[in-house]
Amino acid sequence: MENFQLTEQDRATLQFKVTTKLREAILKGHFKMGERLIQEEWAEKLGVSRMPIREALRQLEVEGLVRIEPRRGAIVTPISKEDIEEIYQLRAMLEGKAVEMSLPHLDEEDVQELEILNNEMAKLKVDEIDVEKYMNLNAKFHKILRSGCPWRRIHGIIDTLWKGIPPYTPSLLVNHLNDSLQEHESMLEYVKRGDSEALKEVMEEHILRTRDKLITIINHS
Question: Which keywords are on file for this protein (predicted)?
Fold first, then answer.
């Protein structure tokens, strides 16, 4: 089986690194449906205490990748290709519409904040990227883009779809972050132009490209 031992550098952000290791292992098919993840075993494999393992499993339960049962512990429930199709197709439709409706209501302060976030993401070097920082910046960027949409319900539905895998896809698709950065640049340009239709289209493409990359990971597991 793949060597999951963490390096000293990994321990700098311990819980995040542990969660990332386990998430990637589940999505790449290292575990069977229904297999137990035993805290003591994984603490030994990763060279950490049980606490970050316990916290990682709680996070993975929120993402729908494990189910924690009394007396049995964490049971693997891998996300399927169909789950990815559903989540990302819905996100593309709803977020595309949300940013289209949001754009006329964004003010100069919003645009400046988007530019700051975009610049911060662009500064991160892909070969040694701080993925956790990128994830946080990316989530804020998307949130501001759709913040001006006047439809209340669409925000609730999108927030629900963002729970689970979507915020963590940068940790799975590090090699494709340059594509995301280019798409963010396009989004920012369309915001400055006031072109809501083009913004909608690039947002849909951005989300569906991520869908396709995740499905590739699952298909090659």
Answer: DNA-binding, Transcription, Transcription regulation
Residue whose token pair is 């090699």: 175
Tens digits of residue pLDDT in 87-96: 999 999 999 9
- Check: CB of residue 63 under 8 Å from CB of residue 165: yes
Pull the structure tokens for residue 183. 């798409």
CA distances from 58 to 22, 32, 50, 71 (A): 12, 19, 12, 15
Q: Look-up: residue for tokens 């964490």?
A: 74
Residue 74 forms beta bridges with which residues? 37, 68
Q: Which residue has the tokens 């709803």?
A: 94
Query: How far apart, in whole angstroms, are the C-alpha atoms of residue 172 and residue 175?
Result: 8
What DSSP line would sit under 25-48, residue for residue? HHHTT-S-TT-EE-HHHHHHHHTS
> Is domain 81-219 in CATH 1.20.120.530, yes or no?
yes
Question: Tell me, what's the pLDDT at 128?
Answer: 61
What's the CATH fold of domain 10-76? Arc Repressor Mutant, subunit A (1.10.10)
More confident residue, 46 or 98: 98
In this prediction, residue 4 carries a pLDDT of 61
Say what the pTM is.
Answer: 0.77
Ranges assigned E (strand) in 38-85: 66-69, 73-76
Residues 120, 26: Cα–Cα separation, whole Å: 30
Residue range(s) occupied by CATH 1.20.120.530 in the chain? 81-219
Contacts of 209 (CB under 8 A, 6+ apart): 176, 179, 183
